[in-house]
Amino acid sequence: MRLPWRVLLGALAAVLLISSCSGQPQGQPEPAPPVAAVHFEPGAGAGEVSPTAPIKATVDQGRFESVQLTNADGKAVAGQLSPDGKSWQATEALGYGKDYTWSGQASGADGKKAPVQGSFRTVQPKKTVRATVNPTDDAQVGVAMPISVKFDEPVKDKAAAERALSVQASTPVEGSWAWLSDKQVDYRPKEYWPANTHVTVKADLYGVSYGNGSYGLADLTSDFDIGRAQIVKAAVGTHQMVVMRDGKQVASYPASYGEEYDPGRNTPNGTYIVMQKNPVEIMDNPRYGYHDVRKTFAARFSNHGEFIHENQENAAALGKVNNSHGCVNLSAADAKAYYDSALLGDPVEVTGSASAMEPRYDVYDWILTWDQWKAKSAL
C-alpha cells in the first residue's frame, strides 16, 4: 500500500523538529572550559613525598575562592593564602606515611569555577631515628665545650644530616662540624668560644633522609651560655697546676702528675675538657694493682682515665715529684677549691709530658688540629 505524499512530508517534518529541539544547533561550538588552571606541588597523585617538602597550590588566570588540604582523618593542615588569592602554602610539617587531599574552588578570569581536587601520600620510613643534643637548654659551660649531636642509629647520608644543623653565637666564631663516628657529629670553634657568649643550636632533622630508609624523628634546639674563660695550664715538669681566668692567673696548686718514665702512667699531652665532676670517685686500675680507691673532688678530663682529684695520701710528692698513675693529684683543700671553680667544658692543657694522647678517647675534639677537624665534615 502506498502512503500519500502528504503523510510522508509530515513525518519528516516531525523528525526534524525533534532533532532541532534535543541537540546542539549545527555549526555551534562546545562551551569553553574554565580558564582557571590549578597546579599542585607536589603533583596530584605523588607518593613518597617528604613531610617537610614545600606543599603548595597555585592558580593561573584566576584566584582561589576556597582551598584546603586535609589528612585522612579530615583534619585541616595549617596554611597561608597569598594576598592576591593566587597561591596557598602549608605552614606546618606533615606526618609520615599519611594521605592528604586537596579541596576547594577557584574562580577564573572568565567568571567560571574550577574545582580544587587531588591527593598525594608522604613517605613511610623504614625507621625513624632519635637524636639528642648537648649542651642542653640553659646550661652554662666552659669555653672549650663542643656541641655534640648523637643519633640512636648510624647515619649513612651524613651530608644531609649536617646540612640540617646550624649554630648561632652572640659573638660570631669560625667553627665546623666533624663526624666522630656514624652516630655522632660535634661542632667546635677554631679557637675557644669567647667568654660570656650565648649559643643557639638548631637541628632541623625531622623529615631528613639519612639513607637506607631511615629518617629523622624530630627537630631539636638548644640555647646555652659560655661562662668565664677558665683554663688549666698543666705543665707536668713544673709540678704545679696553674689556673687562668679571663687571662689572669688566679691559682697555682702544687701537683703530682703521672710517672714520667712509665708510658702507662704518663699524663699525656693534649687539650682536654672537664667532662664530668663527681664529689667522690671510686678508681680502679687492675694493671697497677689497685681497686676501689676512693678519691674526692674528682674532675674527669678524659675517658682514657685522667682526673684532677684530691690525693692527700700523696702529699709528700705534691709540687715535687710526678708519681701518679696519670691523674693530676692535689691536696684536699686545693682539689676542693679547683672543683668548686670548674665548669664542664673548661679546657685542661697538658704539656711537657713524654707522651701524647691518641685521638680516640672522649672528649678528643681539641686534640685534633683545625685542618684535621674540618676534614671530618661531610660537607
TrEMBL record:
<keyword id="KW-0133">Cell shape</keyword>
<keyword id="KW-0573">Peptidoglycan synthesis</keyword>
<dbReference type="GO" id="GO:0016746">
    <property type="term" value="F:acyltransferase activity"/>
</dbReference>
<dbReference type="InterPro" id="IPR038063">
    <property type="entry name" value="Transpep_catalytic_dom"/>
</dbReference>
<keyword id="KW-0961">Cell wall biogenesis/degradation</keyword>
<protein>
    <submittedName>
        <fullName>Lipoprotein-anchoring transpeptidase ErfK/SrfK</fullName>
    </submittedName>
</protein>
<keyword id="KW-0012">Acyltransferase</keyword>
<dbReference type="GO" id="GO:0071555">
    <property type="term" value="P:cell wall organization"/>
</dbReference>
<dbReference type="GO" id="GO:0008360">
    <property type="term" value="P:regulation of cell shape"/>
</dbReference>
<dbReference type="InterPro" id="IPR041280">
    <property type="entry name" value="Big_10"/>
</dbReference>
<keyword id="KW-0449">Lipoprotein</keyword>
<feature type="active site" description="Proton donor/acceptor">
    <location>
        <position position="309"/>
    </location>
</feature>
<comment type="pathway">
    <text>Cell wall biogenesis; peptidoglycan biosynthesis.</text>
</comment>
<keyword id="KW-0808">Transferase</keyword>
<feature type="active site" description="Nucleophile">
    <location>
        <position position="327"/>
    </location>
</feature>
<comment type="pathway">
    <text>Glycan biosynthesis.</text>
</comment>
<dbReference type="InterPro" id="IPR005490">
    <property type="entry name" value="LD_TPept_cat_dom"/>
</dbReference>
<feature type="signal peptide">
    <location>
        <begin position="1"/>
        <end position="27"/>
    </location>
</feature>
<dbReference type="InterPro" id="IPR050979">
    <property type="entry name" value="LD-transpeptidase"/>
</dbReference>
<dbReference type="GO" id="GO:0018104">
    <property type="term" value="P:peptidoglycan-protein cross-linking"/>
</dbReference>
<keyword id="KW-0732">Signal</keyword>
<dbReference type="Pfam" id="PF03734">
    <property type="entry name" value="YkuD"/>
</dbReference>
<feature type="domain" description="L,D-TPase catalytic">
    <location>
        <begin position="230"/>
        <end position="351"/>
    </location>
</feature>
<dbReference type="Pfam" id="PF17964">
    <property type="entry name" value="Big_10"/>
</dbReference>
<dbReference type="GO" id="GO:0071972">
    <property type="term" value="F:peptidoglycan L,D-transpeptidase activity"/>
</dbReference>
<dbReference type="GO" id="GO:0005576">
    <property type="term" value="C:extracellular region"/>
</dbReference>
